[in-house]
Structures are given as structure tokens and as C-alpha cells.
């Protein structure tokens, strides 16, 4: 089989898991012209993504883009190796009888009740034009999603045994040169990849919610990762407008989540000590350091304030900060009560009914897009 690493054409992408992150990842890639299969064992999760994308700024309709690739896909050809060993970019078997006719097409007897296909029409000024759209297929068949994929991105539950079981299940369907990535928030790559036959083309690609909007993706490889794999993933993600940061070493939580976790531990500590309530603590962040952090990281900020001042601050303050190794009660107590945040309607705050939550999410996404667009504009030379 020919190697696909470094190939100029756009890869076919399989996203595994259609939850908070998987839905956003599918949206991101389709908007940027990649063909995507989205797999989830839960039909309700797939239906939710289809509903959200059709209601958002992704319109589903007859594809008009000049792509032979998509043409094959819609015509229902199967993915089979050609003589040279390359896979034709065709639809997964379980969804290949589906067509779009101005809306998300529902299954029409293909035997896969979770399958549907849509084409993205992008309307946001900062994103690609409708000409550069991809195709999204949803499926409950793992093999159908994975077999045609050049890049498999796992966004399943953050539980090592579930992830490891899923990785083992990929083996029979995975192309010989397909790259696999996990979107894990916290697990080290070594614990995910150990013993897998494709461990040398397995990386971490850690996105941030909402995945279609936030630019950062942290990428982690191992010393024995095949040369070119990390660079190829970074290149694909850069094509989606992402800002990849490649870590020098595998480490749990990577960079950004370690920084966020340190802040969250201290925020919970302040709450537990009765120094301020959640709203005050959040306001202290968003009206203060949060504004600067969008422009300058902790080292640049220390330089701006003066390292001599920060030396004194660290000396006075570090002994006062929480170093508790356990999950704070402020967090785990709420989880035990089912108050897990916006997805359940309540966490540290109350979020109202589903409609109110969806409206608030859409508002946050608009604000984030504006902030990111302004930041890009400001950083132009
Ligand atoms: N939520 C975030 O802000 C965030 C940010 C960055 C990374 N992550 C990471 O991304 C991953 C997904 O997180 P999420 O927030 O989308 O979780 P989620 O609970 O919203 O979604 C998980 C999805 O995985 C599906 N699933 C269950 N078993 C599966 C299997 N065997 N194969 C494939 N899918 C399966 C579930 O049906 C569900 O739809 C986790 O590893 C998480 O740590 C989350």
C-alpha cells in the first residue's frame, strides 16, 4: 500500500464519538472541506449532531462543489483498494445509499438506522466559502466509519478501558497507513498506545470546546512515533485554521489543561474558604487576567509585570495556595448530585431549560468567533 503520509489531497476523516467534542470536530472538518464519517454506538448522539448542524450555519442540500471525490461518494460506490493499493474515497457501506435533497437524508433501507449524510454550506465570513465544503456521514457501524479513513480521531468517553477497547476494535478496519489520534483531555499517550499494532502512527490531538471554534490543538507523539506523522496531523489541522502546539514530551493533561486545572483547584479553594462566591471568582478572572491571557501567556505577563515583583509574589503566595491532591468537594459534590454543568442544566450556576441553554451556547459561540476574529486582525503585521 502506498503511504498516505504527506499526500497532498485532503484525507478522509473518521470521528469516533458524537458527544460534545465529536459533534464539534465533525462540524470543523466538514466546514473545511474534509469528508467525514461520524461514528457513535448511541443513535441519539448521532441524531443530536444532525439536528444541531442542520439548525446551525451548516445547510444541507445538493452538493454543488466540483469534487470527483464527493461525486463517487454520493453515487454510492464502495471503498475498495485499487490496483495501486490506494482506497477510493467512497462512502462507508452502511450509508452509501443515502443522498441529500435539501436536508439531512434519513436512512432509506440501507440497514443502518443511524446513518445520514449532509453537505455543509458555510456562511461564516471567517470560514471557508461554500465551494470548499465536505460531506458528513453518521453511522453506528465502527468498521464502516474507519475503513475508508486516512485519519481516525477518537472522541469517546474519558475512560481508559473504553478507549482501549475501541482502539482494539479498530485494528481489522484500519488502513495500513491511516493515522489515529485521541482527543483525550488527560490520559498520557503511552497509556493509550501501548501494545497496539499501530502505536507508531498514534498521537494525541487535544482540541478545546467548542472544537469548531477554539484555535488551539495540542499534539503529542512518542519517541517511537513514525517520522512525519506528527507533522502531517499538524498540517491537516492548520488547514482547518487551527493553531497546533506540538509538545516535546508525552505528559498527562498536556499544557493547557494543566494550567486550567491549577486555576480550577485554586478557584475551588477560594470558594471553600468562603473568600468569594462563584460569580465573584469568575468575574475576577474574566474582568482581569482572562482579558490579558487572550493576548499574552504567563511568561510574557510575568515579563510585563517584572520578574522581581513576581519573585516576591511567588515567595509570599505559593505557600498559601492549595496543593490538595484530591478532587475538591466543590466539584465532586456537584457531580454526585447530577449537577454536571450546562449539559445537565446546572453546575456552579443554573442554565434553564434546553432552549435557554441552546440559545446561550449560540450566543457564546458568536462572541468567541468575534473575539478570535478581532485577535487575528490585531495580530496582523
Ligand atoms: N468536553 C470537553 O470540553 C472536552 C475538551 C477536550 C477534550 N475532551 C475529551 O474528548 C473526549 C470526548 O469528550 P466529550 O465531552 O465529547 O464526551 P461526551 O460524553 O459528550 O461524548 C462521548 C461520546 O462517546 C460515545 N461513546 C460511548 N462509547 C463509545 C465507544 N465505544 N466508541 C465511540 N464512542 C463512544 C457516547 O455515546 C458519547 O456520544 C474525552 O476523551 C474528553 O476527555 C473533552
From TrEMBL:
Pathway: Lipid metabolism; butanoate metabolism. Residues 13-55, 133-251 form the 3-hydroxyacyl-CoA dehydrogenase NAD binding domain. This is 3-hydroxyacyl-CoA dehydrogenase family protein. It holds the Pfam family 3HCDH_N. InterPro entries: 3-OHacyl-CoA_DH (IPR022694), 3-OHacyl-CoA_DH_CS (IPR006180), 3-OHacyl-CoA_DH_NAD-bd (IPR006176), 3HC_DH_C (IPR006108), 6-PGluconate_DH-like_C_sf (IPR008927), 6PGD_dom2 (IPR013328), NAD(P)-bd_dom_sf (IPR036291). Residues 253-351 form the 3-hydroxyacyl-CoA dehydrogenase C-terminal domain. It comes from the Bacteria. The chain crosses the membrane at residues 12-30.
